[in-house]
Write a structure and sequence with these properties.
single chain, alpha+beta, two-stranded antiparallel ribbon
């Protein structure tokens, strides 16, 4: 079974920052919507660093916001789905000549 450092390295190779990787892994490991506070606690990262990482993960499609009454909760998009989306995006870019 891969250790946490190996998983973080793998996510960094995929383009995640170290903090984004830790936040994503915290979300995946809990497999339930979490508040920013809960993510910070699970990832052992200060809260002020977690919210920008969550925003970047949302922008890249790795995480979703789930408004729950007055609280916003976050949930990870499964890595298989995320990887599939990125492969499709790269394929479309290649088809339209963006990469040569």
């Amino acid at each position: 079974m891969p250790n946490l450092d190996n998983l973080i390295d793998d996510l960094q190779a995929f383009g995640f920052s170290p903090i984004e990787a830790k936040v994503y892994l915290a979300l995946v490991s809990q497999n339930t919507p979490m508040t920013g506070y809960q993510v910070a606690k699970a990832a052992n990262i200060p809260r002020p660093n977690v919210y920008p990482a969550l925003k970047r993960l949302i922008q890249r499609g790795a995480c979703l916001e789930n408004p729950d009454q007055d609280v916003i909760r976050y949930v990870a998009v499964p890595f298989q789905t995320l990887g599939h989306r990125n492969r499709l995006g790269l394929g479309l870019a290649l088809m339209h000549g963006r990469y040569r």
